[in-house]
Design goal:
Layout lengths: L14 E3 L5 E3 L2 H4 L10 H19 L2 H6 L1 H17 L9 H18 L3 H10 L1 H6 L5 H29 L8 H29 L2 H17 L12 H8 L2 H13 L6 H26 L2
Length: 292
């Protein structure tokens, strides 16, 4: 009987000549793992991966979006409509409902992000955070991915609020470039407040404490900004707080972009970007403390 010919090697298999002249496949690729991404290429990929993981949770459960739309709708329908008729807050030639709408967009975005640290604590308790920290992913990339996932959720929430405001007759711009600027402002503001929440989580370490602190600071941040009334109506001490409050710069930028009021857009974007970078730095430094 004739010998059965051996099956040819696939064309993709690299071959090296042996001492007897017969070419054999090089198994080096099976023994040596491929080189991992390093440097600047690693961080963007890991940030996008973490952001995608966080957004997958929203894909499986959209209840959060529906329930969180109730509160801003009530602010616009009840508070905004009532104070528009009362005319008790001077807003110039702008109806109070128009003046209020950007502030409610910023408020709803902040409320989504300010309790984001609870998810970090839950991941710590379930063991997920420990597994993430032993991967090659930089801690800053983990925090940034989670922060901008919160920003994407806030942008979706902002779209809902804008549609409600449009149905109520609020005069807003529909310029695509300005709406893109609105999305960037909401993204940066939410990223900062989610990093603030993760920083607090790294300090207090428990969900109960974080819930208490989060509830204690949300309303002062909201009322200590220009979301409901002009800064000029505030007492001097509250004006100083408002100038140090990132929410004030977010609201100022949203008003300038959406309804065309005078705004300091370069300053607003600069403060929000700087606050986000500082927030990511602080949250990254305290992330390891949660896993201990």
């Amino acid at each position: 009987m004739s010998a059965v010919p051996a099956a040819p090697l696939p064309a993709s298999a690299e071959q090296v000549p042996a001492a007897d002249g017969v070419r054999r496949p090089d198994l080096g690729l099976l023994l040596v793992p491929p080189r991992a991404r390093t440097g600047w290429r690693l961080v963007p990929a890991r940030v996008l991966a973490m952001c995608a993981v966080e957004l997958q949770k929203l894909r499986h459960d959209r209840t959060e979006l529906y329930t969180r739309a109730v509160q801003p709708a009530l602010w616009l329908l009840i508070f905004g409509e009532t104070f528009t008729k009362l005319r008790s807050i001077p807003t110039g030639n702008i109806p109070y409902l128009d003046y209020l709408a950007p502030g409610i967009i910023a408020q709803s975005a902040m409320f989504i992000a300010i309790f984001y640290g609870i998810m970090i604590i839950w991941e710590r308790d379930s063991g997920v955070l420990t597994k993430l920290l032993v991967t090659p992913t930089p801690r800053a990339a983990l925090v940034t991915g989670k922060a901008f996932a919160a920003g994407v959720k806030a942008v979706i929430q902002a779209v809902v609020v804008i549609l409600i405001a449009a149905l109520l007759g609020v005069a807003m711009t529909w310029n695509p470039l300005r709406l893109l600027g609105v999305a960037v402002v909401v993204l940066l503001g939410s990223a900062f407040f989610s990093c603030l929440s993760m920083t607090i989580a790294g300090i207090v370490l428990t969900r109960d404490r974080l819930m208490g602190i989060g509830q204690a600071i949300t309303m002062p941040l909201f009322f200590g900004s220009n979301a409901l009334y002009p800064v000029g109506l505030m007492p001097g001490w509250l004006q100083a707080i408002s100038k140090a409050n990132p929410l004030s710069y977010q609201v100022d930028a949203l008003r300038g972009l959406l309804i065309g009021t005078p705004a300091h857009l370069p300053l607003d974007f600069g403060v929000l970007a700087l606050a986000t970078v500082l927030g990511i730095t602080a949250a990254s430094a305290l992330l390891g403390r949660l896993a201990k």
